[in-house]
Amino acid sequence: MTYLTSIKARHRTADPFFRWLAIASGCGTLVIVSAIIAVMVAGGWKAFTVFGPRFLIANVWNPVTQQFGAAAPLFGTLASSVFAMIVAVPLAFGTTFWLTMIAPPRLFSVVSMAVQLLAAIPSIIFGMWGVLVVVPFVAHVAQPFAQWLFGSTPILSALVTGPRFGTGLLTTAFVLAIMITPSMTAVLCDVFTAIPPVLRESGYGIGATRWEVVRYIMLPYSREGFIGSIVLGMGRAMGETMAVTFVIGDNNHISWSLFAPTNSIASLIALEFPESPTGSLKLASLLALGAILMAISFFTLWCSRWLLTRGSLARC
Amino acid sequence: MPSPPSLIRADHPLFVTKRRRFIDRIATVASWGATLFVLFFLGSLLWTLLYNGLPGFTLHLFTHSMKAPDQNGGLANAIIGSILQVGFALLLATPAGLLTGIYLAEYGAQSPLARVVRFVSDMLLSAPSILIGLFVYLIMVAPLEHFSGFAGSVSLALLAMPIIVRTTENMLRLVPHSVREAGIALGIPKWRVTLFICLRAAQSGIITGILLALARIAGETAPLLFTSLGNSKLSFNMERPMASVPLAIYEYAGSAYQDWMQEAWSGALLITVAVLAINIVVRISTYKGRT
After folding, report:
1. CA distances (Å), A7 to each of A12, A13, A205, B187, B193, in order?
2. Predicted pLDDT at A9
3. Under-50 pLDDT residues of chain B
């Protein structure tokens, strides 16, 4: 009896202790993320107060005159990831279509394994590959060809002008696209295989072709999941640092040319943060940019989660 | 018998006409094209890596520290620094991630707090890694006024934790409820049921998650830029700036020296091989576990 009561007494303390430990560590995550947001906003506050809302649209980054604006890196971030998505979405969709509908079983396991493994390659490797392979290709083949093709067309010529550095917006977008395609394909494959096979089979049953099954059954059925995985990939492209830093060209100006060197928020922080003394306006501007990037990435996450869960809830 | 319904008419939209077959053919060819395109460029990446990395991938790389250009250095100090920082990061992230995962699966479930914690953990998972580095710089490096291996570890731990949280929660959810009920019916307190029954049942999945987190942080460069800074000498002191393979790659790849470039590529090959090896081990073990 005394043994039992002593056990009971011990559990009376151990059980709530463990419970509170678990709750505390859950709240710890909450505290960390709140602290990240708070520290970014507090550090960047000086830039917001000095420059006002103009900070967001000012196309200037001049440490000499202490004039800083977010327009160029913000444009670089958004433009490079949008262009990357334009390349990556058809590629990821095509690969998913191939994997789920066309691939022979033996090839399927090899290719899907390869795709999942390649999604794990560190991003710095993509940056180095970009410098060695993509940059020379853009400088010696892609840009000269584009200039030859569009050089004399009134509006399009502005998009291809500029010296042939090889680094720039389009190069970055392409490297990003190749980087995010494997992980997007993996998510899309999960979305597609989660569709009940009965639907696909009934599509074939009424005589639909493979393309029609995908276009009129799979895509409408998994619309939210499809968009959600795209948004997820876009979030990853916008926050990418290492792959971008190598190939974007580090130039804080907005240019019409797709081949012009530019900068993204993440690469600007990586390149200029070491040269920003504590308490300087430059550091505050970089932190303000960090806060903006944080806001963008959380917004995209929120969108993708909303779409992905709405997609799965609607089916239950 | 009346004649069969008019479905089987050549002009019915569901009848496989030439046009529909043609569109299907185009889609098929395009999807083959997309797959080959992706595989071609990823193959090009791996080929570039092997072609440039293999010549310097010798024992020398593992036995010598980083040196000035033309001094025939290696990456030994960076490899040791990486192992120390990643190991310490996992030591920090695993208990915190496990406890948070347990909270979400066993205690919080669908309560408002648990929903918020789940969302916030996903936020951490998708936060740009450079911002994590910036954050750790502001709370650890700037107040203490020196870069340190510890700061690098903390930023890596912040990246690893949400991965562990997510896999722990998902794996615990797969443990059937009857197992928990059986434990409770035997008079085992809940914390013991959780730790010694549920967690053990979910063991392999959780280890997979920890390994995937390891693979993810082993190749991270951006969060280390402003936290552990890098160090060209061999150092075991985690309170001082510390070298790591990704930082060495970043530093050397931007240089103009032939042998530094060679070491950068060999380091890149090393880290890719390590990350892929972890992933392959994980996939083989989970594949075996399923069958």
Report:
1. 8, 10, 64, 11, 15
2. 66
3. 1, 6-7, 291
Provide the 10 A C-beta neighbour count for residue B116: 16
Three-state secondary-structure class, residue B242: strand
> Do B116 and A43 count as a contact with CB atoms less than 8 A apart?
no
Q: Does any domain span residue A17?
A: no
- Closest CA relative to residue A93, chosen from B26, B41, B35: B35
B213-232 per-position pLDDT tens digit: 999 999 999 999 988 888 88
Range of the domain at A221: 71-315
CATH number of the domain bearing residue A235: 1.10.3720.10
How many distinct structural domains can be found in chain A? 1
B277 neighbourhood in chain A, CB within 8 Å = none
State ipTM.
Answer: 0.88
- A30 and B CB contact within 8 Å: yes
Domains and CATH numbers, chain B: 72-290 (1.10.3720.10)
Q: Please report whether residue A164 resides in a domain.
A: yes
| Residues in A touching B194 (Cβ below 8 Å) | 18
For the record, the structure tokens of A251 come out as: 């130039």
The backbone region for B175, taken as left when phi is positive above 0, alpha when psi lies in -120 to 50, beta otherwise, is beta
Å from B69 to nearest chain A CA? 19
Residue A7's pLDDT band (cuts 50, 70, 90): low
* Least CB–CB distance from B131: residue in A128, A214, A293: A293
Q: What percentage of chain A has pLDDT greater than the value 70?
A: 95
Output the DSSP codes for B109-122.
TTSHHHHHHHHHHH
Query: In which region does residue B193 sit, left (phi positive, over 0), alpha (psi from -120 to 50) or beta (all else)?
Result: alpha
**Distance between start and end Cα atoms, chain A:** 50
Q: What is the pLDDT of residues A165-212, one digit of tens each?
A: 888 899 999 999 999 999 999 989 888 888 888 998 999 998 888 898
B72 torsion bin: left (phi>0), alpha (psi -120 to 50), beta (else) = left
Which residue among A22, A28, A129 places its CB closest to the CB of B107?
A22
| Chain B interface mutation, best of A78, A128, A213, A304, highest count of B Cβ atoms under 10 Å | A128
CA distance B192 to chain A (A): 8
Q: What is the mean pLDDT of residues A272-284?
A: 85
